[in-house]
Specification:
- The protein is α+β, with helices and mostly antiparallel strands.
- The protein is built from 10 helices and 13 strands.
- It starts with 16 loop residues before the first strand and ends with a helix.
Amino acid sequence: MKIENSKLAVSKVESLKIAVLAGGIGEEREISIESGDCVSQALKEAGLNVVTVEVRPDKLDILEDDSIDVFFIALHGKFGEDGQLQQILEDKSLVYTGSGPAANRLAFDKMASKKAFTKAGIDTPLAVKFDTDVDIRRLEKRLEEFTDKYVVKPIRQGSSVGISIVSGVSEAIAAAKKCLGEFGDCMIEEFIPGREVTVSILAGRPLPIIEIRPKENFYNYHAKYIDEQTEFLFDTINEPELTAKINAAALDCFGALGCRDFGRVDFILGGDQAAYVLEVNTIPGFTPHSLLPKAAARVGFSMSDLYTKIIELAYSSLVARSS
C-alpha cells in the first residue's frame, strides 16, 4: 500500500496483506530466513494473509505488488539493518516495519552510533576506528589510555560476526588488521568486564531486562545461535533503581539514534553499576530463541501477538506521517 492511497485510519490488522521479507546478502542470511519463517508462521496463526519472500538488491519484484499493505522486514545485517532496504521502501512510499533509513544506517555503524551515544551523555566503552589510513604509533598511544584488554569488531556487522577479545596493544592491532582484511573498517574498543544485559523496546516501552550468561568468554555468534548452554535470565537485577536506570538508558539510546516502534539495546553492566551501551539492534531476531520474543513472552505476548503489534505500529506510523 502506498502512502498517497492510504486511509488515514488504522485498519484492522486482520484485513491487511503482509509480505515478510527475508534473506538478504550478508553473513546473517540463514538467520534471516529462519526469522522470516517464524514471523510468517506466527502471523498465519493469527489469521493474517501472509506471503514470505526472499529478497536481495537485485530481487525486489515483490515491492511492485500493489496488493501488499505492509512489508515486514526480517532481514538482519547488510541490506536489512543498514538502511538500504528501508530507503528503497521509503522512495516507493511503501509501508514497512521498524525504524527508518537514517536510524538504521546510524545504528548499523558502530562508530557513528557510539558518537551519538556520547553526544547524548550515554555511557559507552571508549573506542577507536581502525582502517587503512590509521597511524599505528598514534593508535598505540591512544590504546594505552584504555584498559589492557580490548574488543576488536567490524564497524558494520551484526550477530557478533568477526568479534574477538584480546589482551595487550600489539594483540589488539594484530586482531584489527585481520578484521580489517576480512570485513573492512573495524574498531578497537576498551573491554569492560561485567554482566551482559539487553533491553528490548516495544512501542516506546522497555520490556523485561534479560541477563545473558554465555559459557564461552563472551556472547559470540556460536553462543547466540548454536551453544545450548547459553543462559538467558530474567529478574537477576533486583534493585529497582538500577533497573530503572538501565531502562532509561535503553530509551535514551533509542531516541539518540532516532529509532521507532521496536528494537533491542545491548549493555555491559560494569562493576561500577554503570550501564555501558554496546549497540542498538534495529531488527533483532524473530525466532523462539531470540531475545525480543523472549522478553515479550515475559509480559504475556505470544509470537503472534508480538508480530501483529509490530505491524500495527508500522501502519500507525503511516497514519502519523500521512496526517
